[in-house]
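fold-stage: in
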Amino acid sequence: DGLVVSEKVKSNNIDVKIPESELEAEEKGAEEERPKESDSNILDLSSDYPRDKHISIQRHLADLEKLADMREDERKPCPLCPEEKFKACYSHKLHRHLQNLHWKVSVEFEGYRMCICHLSCRPVKLNLVGDQTLSKMGAHYHCIVCSATIVRRTDMIGHINRHVNKGETESRFNTVRAPKSSYKVVKESATDVQVLPNHSTPQKTDSYFNPKMKLNRQLIFCALAVLAGERKPIECLDAFGATGIMGLQWAKHLRSSVKVTINDCNENSVTMIKENCHLNKMKVKLNIREEDHDETVGNGEENSDIIEVTKMDANVVMHLRSFDFIHLDPFGSSVNYLDSAFRNVRNLGIVSLTSTDISSLYAKAQHVALRHYGCNIVRTEYYKELAARTVIAAVTRAAARCNKGIEVLLAVALEHFVLVVVRVLRGPTPADDSAKKVRYLIHCQWCEERVFQKEGNMVEENTYQQLPCDCYGSMPGKTAVLLGPLWSGALFNTGFLRRMLLEAVQYGLDEAQSLLKTLVSEAECTTPKHFSNHGPGDENKQEECGVYIRTPNTSAESYLVHGKRKSEEVLRSTAKRQRPEHSAEHPPFYYNIHRHSIKGMNMPKLNKFLIYLSEAGYRVSRTHFDPMGVRTNAPLAQFKTVLRKYSTPTYVGAQAEGPVHLPGEIQLGEEVPAATVLKVQEAELAADDKPGVATAVFTQSYPAHCAAD
């Protein structure tokens, strides 16, 4: 057959005949490969130097010089530069070149130096100049761990730090997890979790854990506890587990009331979630793939201690299974997961989402908000509530596409996140009702007055007429902008918040208690004094941590009996009987008292101002969105009138706070003449130069008894 058997390859007792021509070609190729290795200078220069490192990675400067000394000529080239960049030279010049251009700008890592390389390792960029083609050679670094090429030195340092934080410090292309000694155990709400050293940097670690989000986790736990009291057992999903801290808290405290599923698409995160489950003495049920490939690991006796851990994309998990409670907390915006979340969520279930893309939601990157949420927003005094209504509008549209409506239970916007908790109402009618509450907002850029656009499809001739202010007539040009679409309905459910407050008191969540008290007061739009005030005949109120909470007539025993929850029917009827004190929804948006303060006047204390505004007949409360914000149904003109009435001039600020009697006996609700305000301002300017003039002008503007002070 023309074949000569020159070698036998024994594999599974089978003799393979190899042609002699192929063997000669292989031997010839092997001989050609040996000189290539010497030419490329990939040699074992020292016993401790690994072979898979690039030649630009050395321990000492002398090692780089040894690479150049292999050439016997007097003029020696640079091993890290091409001939057209650095020509061969004598050894003393080469030493200066290697030291100044390569060694001084190197990046050090575990005794090695990653020197800058000018060889054609990276893809070159071709620049066509006339008929000539010039190749642009770029300097770069070679990573000692993954052999990646990085251009900038600062980027190279950050790249190496990411490897260290992930525990990847060994040979390239091999990921080695960090040793146990480098883990840090963090305890929160009686739950222990292991985290990596850079656990608070989301883009640089697989196990993101932010201690600043503790309040967020407590609020979500309280919402889940309320739902667990309505029906049980409920299936809940933590779609982005990271360390698994949130799902572990659910399973550890609620026990048999919940069936917890923790998901993450990262393999290292799934491994850490399993270890954290064992750390908290929980059994793990693995579901790594979409097929029925389950595995139970751990020791346990009760079925309530089992936590299911899945390694899938969050959209895939929510498409495959139905849940009663879903929490979304991705890094950044959660709009990419809303359609999947509302696809299979059960009726009367709860979907909570935490958005951390505050740069776009807080109108710092308006183009990103338009891209992600389809909403036009600007920076306003009420930008945090604007962010919450923007997220709810996106949630409403996603739910409506699945023939579902929503009821907003909670909306919180703080420094680091925006949390929205909604209840899902299945059916086209709730979906239509919710979609009608997504409307545009007319915002005046001069006085920051705002009003939602009226419902209807007819185009109005003058949209500015809907605003209560008259800035359009008194100011030149266009004074208002159209923001939205935004959610125009209520942001809170008072009954649900009160039950969350009970759960926070029961489980000792101190940080959540103070915020929930503010939210209850804000939802009812009442002052703290009115919120805590009660008469002897109010038997359906009980005191929890200094706050009187409206409960059914059976007080706290209607929720807990001998440490156990009552049946589902009783709790549902209890929730139906529970109603907020005010039937009307809370007013939308709020005013910042500092933003509308009067120049040259000392404004009253915030709590006193709330009492003054309440005595004027308006609903008023503080808001968690802004510590100096006032939520009220009073128009901006009346808000300023009350503020002006109870403000005192700056130069008599030592006197007791009280109403400033305006000339002409101006009553509340009437506009203060502009001349009066101008005279006060003129008095301040005159006081700087001639104190006596200030007194004279002030005497002309105000009655004698006020000027005498």
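fold-stage: in (second)
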Amino acid sequence: SGSAAGAGAGMWAKGLWALLAALRAGWCLLPQAGYLHPDEFFQSPEVMAGDILNLQVYYPWEFLSSSPCRTVVFPLMTSGVTYWVIKSLQQLDICSSCINSYTLLVSPRLLFTMFSFILDYSVYRLAPFWEADPWKALVLLAGSYVTLVFYTRTFTNALEGLLFALLMVLVSSRKPDGSSAEPTSSPLVGIVTTAGFFNRPTFLAFALMPLLYWAGLIVDSQKGIKTVINHFLKLVLCACFTAIVFVTADTFYFTAMGLDNLYSIQKSSLFDVIGQLNEKMVVTPFNFLSYNLNPHNLALHGSHPRVTHFTVNGTMLFGILHILAIGAGFKMLKKYICQLIRVKSYCHGSSGLLAHSEGNPTLLLFYFVPLAFLSLFSHQEPRFLIPLILPLVLFSTSQNRAVKWKHIIIIFNVLGALLFGCLHQGGLIPCLLHLEQLMHSPESSNHPRHYTLLFAHTYMPPRSLLNIKKRDTHVEVIDMAGSEEETLCRTVEQRANNFTCNDCHVFVIIPGTVRATITKCGVSFKNETLIFPHLSMEDPPQIPFLFSGNWRSQLGLYILQLDRDQ
């Protein structure tokens, strides 16, 4: 009966994982409305939409030839490939309107969602190695809102997590008798480590423990010194080759500054091209590090206490699993200190969160060592920690640590998915999709109009989702960010009083929580569209209003059309 119950539980876990996997793909296609951070657009899709689809976009400073800090290889391999596919489908007349705001949003996300199953594969492969149940670990992974929301977005942090997972798979291998096997994947370890470094130089913090573990296995394999040197030589040679590929691609791109200018380079002689590349060699990780190691530069993006990752961000992303890991970490630390000073009488176990903390401490090191290194920087955002979900899930599933907290885990992840997947800046993407349809409607196409879109107190709007060609000049986007009332009113009044344009349409996009501000500007509106829900943490709703009849306004984003006749 015990084996039958175990088989039943296994089937239940497999079915639940399949359901959560379908939810991950389906929610991506729906699409998810929440807007997590501008980097999910401006470090990949926005740049590629400008280069490949020739759309009006905003190029972030990291992708300018004067300050290249991001490799172009991964944006080209992800958003670039998806945009090239939909462009080709439209050119071949397979679909007449393949390029629209929906496909521009969803196609790169869908590719990232497909890539996210590398995490699931890694967990399935690694769970037996780390004495965890594979299907329970997969359910914990697939049910996490970090997987459902963050890993389906076009973040470099998501790619960093996938490369970290692959590196853990490469360094973890067992013989049939259960003992650790000598690694045979030195070339792949070198390639993955270098690719991760070029994607985000912080990858070295995640790679440190797997690389030390890999080196320890090689040294402990009791093979000759020639075999050890052979492994390291393979790793270094493949790492160098991968670095050359990235440097060449980045130098070529930033010398040309976008794919539009490659044609002029192609017309040059081979020697001229090689000369240009040698003069302007671009090594983006070094530029990234030189910028981020300057405390003044980091302060421009926000400074946080050094313990933010440890106390706030880890808990925000992983909830009780992070707290359990901290408890287990302290208990193991106490145990090793006691063994070190040989005072065993004080080393008896405790209850609560610290219970069941025995086990392999290596997984805890895989979790806490990267967290410690990332905590050295003053700029600390939650998404920087999303690669740590893999060792945390494996550690939490081994010895069934997470089972007794399953109800808390479920509630935490449902709330996290709703907050970040639906509510957080959740009106801005639907707003852009609505405006794209408005500006490409048959009425607008037959009678060309000029549109001014003024965004205030929202995240930076990705221009690419408006689907406006670079040659078109009939759309102007003004991002007022968090401007003060006086600056906002002055800009709105200037647009309202611009009588040189007869067929101009001015739209102001503003959260409901600052809707009252715009009424003080002395202008009137003829159309109001409320997009619900939209939660701005920079301009949060006042609690009393949420219990009034006006609560939808507080959790909405307004599209206000100026009445210029007034």
